[in-house]
Amino acid sequence: MAERGQLPPYAKRLCCRPGYGSGCRLGQQAGDTGPGSGTFCAGPSSAAAAAAAAAAATAASLVLLPLGKTQSPESLLDIAARKVAEKWPFQRVEEQFERIPEPVQRRIVYWSFPRSEREICMYSSFDTGAEGFTAPGSAAGNTASGGAVDAVADENRLPFRRGMALLDGGCVDNVLQVGFHLSGTVTEPAMQSEPETVFNVAISFDRCKITSVTCSCGNKDIFYCAHVVALSLYRIRKPDQVKLHLPISETLFQMNRDQLQKFVQYLITVHHTEVLPTAQKLADEILSQNSEISQVHGAPDPTAGASIDDENCWHLDEEQVQEQVKLFLSQGGYHGSGKQLNLLFAKVREMLKMRDSNGARMLTLITDQFMADPRLLLWRQQGTAMTDKYRQLWDELGALWMCIVLNPHCKLEQKTSWLKQLKKWNCVDVCPWEDGNHGNELPNLTNALPQGANANQDSSNRPHRTVFTRAIEACDLHWQDSHLLHIISSDLYTNYCYHDDTESSLFDSHGWPLWHEHVPTACARVDALRSHGYSREALRLAIAIVNTLRRQQQKQLEMFQARKKELLYRGITSITNLEGWVGHPLDPIGTLFSSLMEACRVDDDNFHGFSDFMENTSQHKSLEYQHLPAHKFLEEGESYLMLAVEVALIGLGQQRIMPDGLYAQEKVCRNEEQLISKLQEIELDDTLVKIFRKQAVFLLEAGPYSGLGEVIHRESVPMHTFAKYLFTSLLPHDAELAYKITLRAMRLLVLESTAPSGDMSHPHHIASIVPNRYPRWFNLSHIESQQCELASTMLSAAKGDVQRLETVLQSIQKNIHSSSHIFKLAQDAFKIATLTDSLPDITLLKVSLELGLQVMRMTLSTLNWRRREMVRWLVTCATELGVHALDSIMQNWFTLFTPTEATSIVATTVMSNSTIVRLHLDCLQQEKLAGSARTLALQCAMKDPQNCALSALTLCEKDHIAFETAYQIVLDAATTGMSYSQLFTIARYMEHRGYPMRAYKLATLAMTHLNLSYNQDTHPAINDVLWACALSHSLGKNELAAIIPLVVKSVKCATVLSDILRRCTLTTPGMVGLQGRRNSVKLMSLDKAPLRQLLDATIGAYINTTHSRLTHISPRHYGEFIEFLSKARETFLMSHDGQIQFTQFINNLKQIYKGKKKLMMLVRERFG
Questions:
Q1: CB 846 within 8 A of CB 881
Q2: Which residues, including other chains, have CB under 8 Å from residue 1167's CB and lie 6 or more apart?
């Protein structure tokens, strides 16, 4: 027996054996072979009492074997010891009985070690899950479900897998169990770069749970290391090979004084370097009467098991949990930290499902680190939103707390403690808000039952709803409602005589139970039941909720049908739900769907799991027939799968308002797509198609209760994604219904100028608190793309059906408001219509062209960077349809294209050889099409001569009248609306086409618009000026004489003028270009007109430019300036008195700029 006193810091239990004398010890040892191997001398009465008490406590554990099977019966001692080892701390066993026979102690100690590998796996790897667990001894071991482990590391590198490999490799040795302490050595085999290493492992355990672990490997992780796993599995799989001893205090108790002294001295001798200082210190304290040790009765024994006050929970390294979470958060989503945190959340759920108290403990540690994240304060100060992935982690955190506080069997003190902690976090300024951007002002909707009437009176006064608000509200919910307890506890809870057909009746017309509660709250109960291992109970409640929703749906349809004419006449709708179920923080539809789908995947035996819900509910007795199957409450022929599909369709089709805030809106879309993705994994059969038909009809006819009602609220969440799924599912079975659904879903009222407003006259189903605001849909581009996808799906399906294509086209033109999406639809239709393996679908091509024309009209007066691509594509589409389509777009070009687009792209493409070849046109058809193109070109030139004149001339080359008309348009516009560069370009074109006089005329017109200043010696127009002068020179003296005054007036740049002057003096005007050589006729004189005027202008330009340069010249430009003067001198010398003029010019410079001594010195050195 052991007695307890005040516990010293290094031990949990103090053990002693009062009432035994030396004689008794000797008597006990008589017949023993050695210390610890004998039995106690307790009389038979005490042994019988102990055995009888244990047997009485475990009588219920005896079960009958199946008929025809035999098995050696377990001893009563083992049955009793196993049950006691599971439930009682060893101190309670010692205190309950005066004497405990040694065989009984041994069996209790034997059965106190964990017997299931599932928990070992849970504490040494991510995401084990019940489905992935295999029985001990199987080759497969544990397989992580969902592939989550693969996202982190190779599965074989997980501690559990490595531990199994070490065990299978015979690496576990020296296994010894002393009381409630297991020790052994695990040898890591030698690797390429590392030698063989032996690690010492020690494990303490209590009531089939490992309470502490130590390993010399120095593991720093949340999970047990592979060596702890190997030793634990060795003890589970090979218990009979483990040498078992009673707690060391029992062994010491059997020793006499000499044996005890010898034991201590040998222990000190073997470990003198480690324990000698401690041994001497303890000896001094024991010998001192006033020491703390002397004041305490008994002595500590680390192998003696747990005391009554010890908490019975698995070992969890809290410090490592905090450090790991802090590390993951500091990485900001990089290096897979987001996946790691999600795996930690999955681990919490796994612990909850195993009813492990460490689940709440671990989540508390995680939440503390989340709340301490410095980024929260930074984001709040900067007014920026947290990242989407990080926001999703907070959502999961809030959902987990909701599950924990809704634990149906948690103690009141536990819930009180959690509520206090949640309120503490909730009051922190940086606590994230529920909708991710700003708090909404919705009332407290969690407490929908009367049980919550007095709960959280101040919740509506909170400025914001945080991620913890719902969990705080859920603390006021309870499980004591008798109707609720009957639902979750019995498969045969019915009332066939119940005739109350009111909205809140407890049973339906079948007599099946209904559960009327705020739907997200009711579904949170389902999630909580599933999370805590009550799968069967969760399924029962889920079925009751779905039956309630189906009944409400029928009632809603009847209610709307009664008022349909009135509502449609008034053109208004109502909001039937404050919170949409898809995208809701508690994910109610996803919870129901998952619960029902889970029931489809597991067999009846495995599904029960921990089906002892009523075992711990003292307030309610177990009902009869509780083992009948849950499908009692389904229609004949219905299955869980059908129910799962139907509730998903109900949730997706619900009319709901788009919430405020970027994150909340993105979540609506994301959750909808996730749910549809799960539905798409289900193969549809005839029974499921009936469900689809039923829900599709309801969606079309249910008015304000459906997102596909005839009149919906302007800010109702669009049904495009959902309708696309319905369309593809129904099309092979009921095409008419499929098209009705999708055509109704195509609308996007938030973009309409007029849309229905909310009906506030019936508060029983209308949300009067929805604000009348200008909608800010941050996800509008995504919604429009989904609308476009829906339309594209219909176009593809309607190929070959003229009537349906016309209907789809009208719907697109009415409902899609984005030019880019209409253009995409046009392209999609074109691709579908022109598939290479079939002839073109003319009707679909016409739809494609019609959509393209609509895009042209929409973008004609707006800036669009894809405009040229759109125009080119439209011409291609029209070409595919034929010459009539091309002629039509050219006839109506002014409503579709700009003049530049019409000439440079449309007309040019139409008249290209590739188009003629593609259309297989004869000469007459070619000429007719070309005539339309020329008419278009001339019209464009008239409207925009600056940009279209050259294209018009090019297009009209083969038609003399049209060409002359285009040329006249250029002349008319030359004096007012055209720039010198445009005129020079057309002039060069004219010269190239063999019209030099026309080119000369256009060049002179261009010169009148030009102005080159003295410092523009790199101006792009210089080449045009030189070309114009060369053209004039080649035409004759008169032309040259006419253009030189224009050049002198327009050009002030000295270098350009000198270049022109030199070129004019090299040849005789009108005589250049004959047989490629210079003519010998007399050159023009520089002393006579027109070159004299040009020479004087050039010299004057040099003088002016020189003075301008000297005004702001810097020393680094002196060399360049001297070269400039050298060129000037060459021009001066072309005059008969040029040398005198230049000398006078230089002298003037010396006098005026004598302050620039260095520069003037350089001038004198070069020019004297």
A1: yes
A2: 1125, 1129, 1142, 1146
| Predicted pLDDT at 609 | 47
CA distance 882 to 920: 10
Amino acid in the structure at residue 477: L
Closest CA to 775 of 790, 758, 791: 758
DSSP element (H, E) containing 680: helix 662-680
Tell me the residue length of the chain. Answer: 1168
Could you tell me whether strands 14-15 and 299-300 are parallel, antiparallel, or unpaired per DSSP bridges? antiparallel
The pLDDT tens digits for 565-593 are 776 666 556 665 667 899 998 999 999 99
- Distance between CA 1052 and CA 1054 in Å, rounded? 6
- The reply to whether the predicted model has a pTM over 0.90 is no
> What phi and psi values does residue 638 have, to the nearest 5 degrees?
-80, 155
With helix as H, strand as E and coil as C, how does 265-289 read? HHHHHHCHHHHHHHHHHHHHHHHCC
The values of phi and psi at residue 443, to 5°, are -70, 170
What would you measure as the largest C-alpha separation in the chain, in angstroms?
A: 154
Q: Exposed, middle or buried: residue 542 (CB in 10 Å: 0-12, 13-18, 19+)? A: buried
**300: which residues sit within 8 A by CB, 6+ positions away?**
7, 8, 10, 11, 12, 13, 14, 15
Determine the Cα–Cα distance for residues 799 and 813; give it in Å rounded to an integer. Answer: 18
Find, among 516, 519, 540, 513, the residue nearest to 529 by Cα: 540
What are the Cα distances from residue 1, in Å, to 95, 249, 621, 835? 8, 9, 39, 90
Q: Which two tokens stand for residue 718?
A: 């669009």
**What span, in angstroms and rounded, lies between the C-alpha atoms of 867 and 851?**
14
Angle at 934 between CA 932 and CA 939, to 5 degrees: 95
Q: What is the 3-state secondary structure (H, E, C) of 995-1008?
A: CHHHHHHHHHHHHC
Cβ burial of 604 (10 Å; 0-12, 13-18, 19+) is exposed
Name which of 450, 643, 471, 408 is nearest 542 in CA terms.
643
175 three-state secondary structure: strand
Instruction: Report how far residue 1131's alpha carbon sits from residue 379's, in angstroms, rounded to the nearest whole number.
Output: 72
Closest by CA position to 748, among listed 783, 702, 790, 721: 783
Tokens representing 487 are: 């639902």
DSSP string, 538-569: HHHHHHHHHHHHHHHHHHHHHHHHHHHHHHHH
* Alpha helices for 1051-1117 (secondary structure H): 1054-1066, 1091-1111
Beta bridge partners of 200: 185
Look up residue 1032 and give its DSSP letter.
H
Q: What angle do CA 508, 511, 512 make, to 5 degrees?
A: 75
Give the pairing of strands 172-178 and 243-245. parallel
Per-state percent for the chain, helix, strand, coil, to nearest 5: 60, 5, 35
Compute the distance between CA of residue 1146 and CA of residue 1142 in angstroms, rounded to an integer: 6
Reported as a single tens digit per residue, the pLDDT across 811-852 is 999 999 999 999 999 999 999 999 877 788 999 999 999 999
The answer to whether residues 495 and 507 touch, using CB atoms and an 8 Å cutoff, is: yes
428: left (phi over 0), alpha (psi -120 to 50) or beta: beta
CA separation (Å) from 944 to 797, 909, 948, 949? 44, 19, 6, 8
pLDDT at 405: 94
Cα angle: 854, vertex 858, 864; to 5 degrees: 120
Q: What is the pLDDT of residue 388?
A: 84
**CA distance linking residue 596 with residue 602, whole number of Å:** 11
Bridge partners (DSSP) listed for residue 325: none
The stretches in the chain having pLDDT less than 70 are: 1-71, 127-155, 333-335, 436-463, 498-501, 567-578, 602-632, 753-775, 1070-1083, 1085, 1087
